[in-house]
Specification:
The protein has 6 helices and 5 strands, in the order αααβαββαββα. The chain has 154 residues and is an alpha+beta fold. α1 packs across α3. The longest helix has 26 residues.
Amino acid sequence: MKYLIRSIKYFFQLIIALTLFIVVLSLLHLVDSDPSKIFVNGLDSFWQIAAFVAVFSAIYPRFGYASRRIYVNGSFDQIFPIVEQEMIKRGYKLEKRTGEDLCFRLRSTVARFSRMWEDRITMTRTLNGWSLEGPGKDVIRIANGFNSLPSEDE
């Protein structure tokens, strides 16, 4: 279900961005304001563009969201403050804590809006750390950040 919602949100974000782009070009008189003169196929181009955007939107969540594991030794009570501190440094705040599973959201409303509120990082506790799930680039950065933290042995 998450996949479908992400696809639909991305479809509308792309359609709005393309529409704004065409409107700005038209207002700057860089292109004609008549859609039949802007596009080769006239008004039929709108359906072709929408179909292309739909295909792209259907594929994007597969590559735009990721899951990674981080390995952190110690008890949850020892690790939780370190995890929370690291996430705060990265611009996230704790949204929900269910047992040892955590959900973080971006603090910045502007950043959340730009991601269409698809900014949640879910951390599911495993035997030796957590499994992170969320937007791919954020999950990768966070996982690399945690994996580069000095361990107690160092």
